[in-house]
Design a protein that fits this description.
8-stranded mixed sheet; Urease, subunit C, domain 1; 33 strands; disordered N terminus; alpha/beta; globular; 4 domains; TIM Barrel; binds 2-acetamido-2-deoxy-beta-D-glucopyranose
């Protein structure tokens, strides 16, 4: 038994032994297998690192190539619109008999024909030349011409190119739901892209093409390192695809890329409440360097990776180093991305250039750059060319913009620097791009550079001048046929093509005479400067007067130049020959005018002239009501004692006032400054002369009670439009017999200036007026064309402010653009017989009132007399002002609202107050 069991045990042991071995064997096999598999896996990951990384190594230092226009045969964007029409033999559009102003600003000597095929300029040939006739005959024989346009001597330019816009990412009208312009997660957002936010439903896209703008760089806003911008064509394709609007959408290979940066006030201001974000330029500088240092580490790691793989033939153990946060900046360092930096002050520009040098990057374009004209040498001394993408006339609203000059583009040109003009839409409305060039030309930028600044030079600034910006073979068929020379006031696109597809299509009427570019204003001659000695005198003779718009001094009966003789402050003679009166006195001072025009001194309504110098710096004057309201300090306006009066805050002799006077704005009406926020009660306006240093300038201390109704009036106590209307009704009725501002308004002793743009609010106001019998002035009135007859019938005047359709807010979304055949607000009001005034809602524009209203009038097709009334006597009548009857005149050479005209003298109350005034007189702020 014992032995048997022994044997059994032994068998068991043997079995166990075998089992153990079998287990160990299979474990060995298992482990080796695992090891082998792991090795395979390791190898394939490294292979992937290698193959993906090699792609990066190959292209990391490549920069986009320019297209060869001679080789371009088709424009893929055309196909998007062509709907199969381009099958078979390609069809042609021929534009005949136009004068071409090309992207370099040169005008063709002869009439030219442009052949457009498949969205490209196929050829440009002299009209009537053998080659043009032959090609046309040949295409005719093939039935290949689908559209033939006779430009009838009109000017043709390439489509306008906007280098700085926020169209699509700040859609109109601005709603919380569609404003995507500012990303405030951090001041450093190089990884954000405007394409992610671009809204094809923004009506400003069509407004752009209606105004001749065919391509635009859409930049993100405000951050120190803001993100990536994209260039879009200004036409939504039938597919509604954002990507198909990209200029480079179908390009293979490397594409141009643009990034945005910002210096100074914008990035400094935006993160006030964030402890970790910079608050000073020093902090911004640090953050910039810190970020670039991080990018440099990444770039070095990339280069080391490639060196190790390509030179040392090492198998990579890590992937090619990338970092979504920094890739854009590495590409900037590699020269693959074009930097576009928003910078105003000279020292901000210098800091940026210092940083650029430190990190070996190039600054492709300085945007806004209002002070660049003060440092041309610093800009030129860089080892690369910098485009100055600036404005023609922005000035004064903040410290950064206070040193700006309307002569800056001219000075930059003189220094051989590249000038591009932009709108920064919606800062300025997109359709004003052309007028930027016009205004810059008026102040001395040459006609060639003015046109180039919004066509070829802008295309160069984008490094897309291989594709658009010029009318040359192989370029995108972005073409504009103008109603007039594009630098002439009121020139409008009659036809616009984008990639050969019609965007605007108005009839072209034959033109017998071709306008040339208007002249820039000439510099003052020594003799003219010498005539400034006549200032303060009350006796002067003007000769060479050819037109008068001041009805109080009579009209010219014929075209003979007349004389105007002012003696001891009164007009004693206005006729062809006054010599009888002055022949005895040879010492009468004389000013001879070329094409002399006499107009009344202007009267305008301003947001804060006479109160604040820089609107974003409330310390520079009376202050801004909104800011006080934010702090809860403003009293309840339903109590009449709490209504502020501008007269109590007047600041005399400010730079804004001096410049306003120098441009003929003698009389100014200003309500208490409300700022940009929402506010129902602004208070009581005051009227004063702009050229005085004390209370003698006040024309009327209490002019009108200013109230805002509509979205912009939604404030504490009156958060809805209905509460605004009922509150207004209540305070008027309640105070009817009281001696306070509400009582005076209720009794019709003080005009009620209601700031509103919305048609339905105006309807409510008409009802309120009928109910209470009050005198109402509509200020703003952007939708007032929809009620023009009713307003006229009820004697409600409108002070249009501003005239340009911007659709910034919901309340003004139904504005008339005046472009592409649409009517204009001013002409609708005139036609209906509404008493109309015209002013600006922007202090920056006040000193530009002459040309701005000239532009409004010529776009609206209203007469010279009518427009001059809108900015002078109509304003006085609307605001119930009696301006001194003694002669207060603008004496100008040329029609003062036209470009190229110049003010020769400003007469105030019979005294020669200014003679050949400097538009930007040197100002000493400290004495
Ligand atoms: C800069 O511009 C000038 C004048 O347009 C041109 O001759 C030069 O080649 C440009 N330099 C660079 C580095 O592009
Ligand atoms: C601008 O260029 C022109 C022509 O090349 C030259 O004559 C002129 O001296 C340059 N001006 C400046 C300020 O560099
Ligand atoms: C005119 O009067 C002003 C103010 O009194 C004075 O500053 C200015 O020098 C005078 N101009 C002339 C030419 O006398
Ligand atoms: C201006 O008035 C003075 C004094 O009243 C007079 O002597 C002079 O002749 C007048 N000048 C003219 C041009 O009428
Ligand atoms: C307009 O001014 C006149 C004269 O000063 C005054 O009698 C009238 O009440 C004023 N009208 C309004 C609506 O302010």
């Amino acid at each position: 038994m014992f032995a048997a069991s022994d044997l059994k045990d032994r068998k068991n042991e043997l079995f166990k032994f075998a089992l153990l071995w079998a287990f160990l064997l299979s474990l060995f096999v298992f482990i080796t297998n695992i090891q082998r598999n792991t090795k395979i896996e390791v190898n394939s990951t490294r292979q992937r690192f290698l193959s993906e990384g090699l792609e990066y190594c190959k292209t990391k230092d490549q920069i986009p190539k320019m297209l060869n226009t001679n080789e371009r045969k088709t424009n893929p964007r055309y196909e998007l619109f062509a709907n199969g029409h381009s099958d078979g033999f390609p069809s042609y559009t021929i534009i005949k008999n136009g004068l071409i102003i090309d992207g370099d600003g040169s005008t063709s000597e002869h009439k030219m024909d442009i052949f457009i095929r498949q969205g490209l300029v196929h050829s440009v040939m002299r009209s009537g030349s053998a080659s043009s006739t032959q090609l046309e005959d040949y295409l005719n024989s093939k039935n290949a011409i689908t559209s033939r346009i006779d430009a009838n001597n009109h000017y043709i330019t390439p489509g306008l190119v906007e280098m700085h816009s926020h169209i699509g990412i700040c859609s109109q009208p601005e709603l919380k739901g569609n404003n995507d312009m500012f990303e405030t997660m951090s001041p450093v957002t190089p990884f954000t892209r405007t394409i992610d936010a671009f809204n094809i439903g923004d009506p400003a896209i069509q407004l752009a093409s209606d105004s001749g703008v065919t391509a635009a760089l859409i930049l993100p806003s405000a951050n120190l390192i803001s993100g990536e911008g994209y260039v879009f064509k200004m036409m939504v394709p039938p597919s509604n695809s954002v990507e198909e609007m990209l200029v480079q959408y179908e390009d293979t290979g490397l594409k141009q890329r643009w990034m945005k940066m910002a210096c100074g006030e914008n990035p400094k201001r935006r993160y006030k409440t964030r402890p970790e974000a910079p608050k000073s330029r020093m902090g911004l500088g640090h953050l910039f360097r810190h970020t670039m240092d991080r990018a440099k580490v990444l770039k070095n790691a990339q280069d080391a990776w490639c060196d190790s793989v390509l030179q040392d033939k090492e198998m990579p153990t890590t992937a090619f180093p990338l970092d979504d946060e920094l890739n854009m900046l590495v590409d900037l360092m590699r020269g693959k991305v074009l930097s576009n930096a928003h910078c105003y002050e000279t020292y901000d520009i210098e800091t940026l250039l210092r940083h650029a040098k430190e990190y070996q990057i190039e600054i492709n374009a300085l945007h806004h750059s209002l002070d660049a004209y003060l440092i041309p040498k610093i800009i030129k001394d860089q080892p690369y060319n910098i485009t100055l993408a600036t404005f023609a006339s922005q000035w004064g609203f903040k410290k950064e913009a206070f040193q700006a000059s309307v002569f800056a583009p001219k000075i930059l040109e003189k220094n051989n620097l590249s000038v591009v003009l932009t709108t920064d839409h919606p800062a300025l409305p997109q359709q004003s791009l052309l007028s930027q060039a016009q205004v810059a030309h008026h102040y001395g930028l040459s006609a060639e550079k003015a046109i180039a600044s919004i066509t070829g030079e802008a295309a160069k600034g984008l490094k897309l001048d291989d594709r658009f910006g010029y009318l040359r073979k192989g370029y995108d068929a972005d073409v504009v046929i103008w109603s007039d020379h594009p630098l002439q006031m009121g020139a409008k696109p009659l036809k616009v093509f984008i990639d050969g597809v019609p965007a605007v299509d108005l009839p072209i009427v034959a033109k017998s005479e071709l306008a040339l570019a208007p002249k820039s204003i000439p510099e003052f001659t020594d003799e003219e400067i010498y005539k400034r000695e006549l200032e303060n005198s009350s006796t002067v003779l003007f000769t060479g007067v050819t037109a008068s718009y001041d009805t109080s001094i009579g009209k010219l009966p014929n075209s003979e130049p007349w004389e105007l003789f002012i003696a001891n402050g009164t007009i004693v003679c206005f006729q062809s020959d006054c010599s009888e009166l002055y022949s005895t006195n040879q010492k009468i001072p004389k000013i001879h005018l070329e094409d002399g025009h006499i107009s009344p001194m202007l009267t305008t309504l301003t947001p804060s002239h006479g109160l604040n110098e820089m609107n974003l710096e409330s310390s520079t004057g009376d202050g801004i009501l909104m800011e006080a309201m934010d702090d809860g300090q403003l009293g309840d306006f339903r109590i009449p004692d709490n209504i502020p009066i501008a007269n109590d805050g007047l600041q005399f002799g400010s730079v804004h006032l001096i410049r306003a006077f120098a441009t003929g704005i003698g009389n100014i009406i200003t309500p208490p400054a409300r700022g940009e926020g929402k506010m129902f009660m602004a208070g009581v306006s005051t009227a004063f002369k702009s050229n005085s240093d004390d209370f003698s300038s006040v024309l009327k201390g209490e002019v009108a009670l200013h109230i805002t109704i509509g979205d912009m009036g939604k404030q504490v106590f009156v958060p809805t439009i209905s509460s605004q209307i009922s509150t207004l009704r209540t305070v008027l009725i309640k105070n009817r017999n009281e001696d306070n501002f509400y009582g005076r308004a209720a009794r019709n002793e003080l005009p009620l200036a209601i700031h509103t743009n919305n048609k339905d609010v105006m309807l409510h106001l008409l009802r309120l007026k009928q109910e209470l019998g009050i005198y109402i002035i509509i200020v703003g009135g952007i939708e007032s064309h929809l009620l023009a007859t009713e307003l006229a019938a009820n004697n409600v005047p409108v002070v249009v402010s501003p005239w340009q359709c911007q659709r910034k807010y919901w309340d003004e979304r139904r504005c008339l653009t005046g472009l592409a055949g649409q009517g204009s607000l001013l002409s609708s009001l005139v036609k209906a017989g509404v008493k109309t005034g015209l002013s600006s809602d922007d202090d920056t524009k006040v000193r530009l009132l002459l040309h701005d209203s000239g532009l409004a009038a010529s776009l609206a097709g209203i007469s010279k007399n009518e427009i001059i009334k809108m900015i002078s006597t109509n304003m006085e009548e609307i605001f119930n002002l009696t301006v001194s009857k003694s002669p207060s005149l603008i004496i100008s050479e040329g029609f003062p609202l036209a470009y190229g005209s110049r003010i020769a003298a400003l007469i105030d109350g019979g005294t020669l107050f200014k003679v050949y005034p400097d538009l930007e007189p040197a100002i000493d702020l400290y004495s």
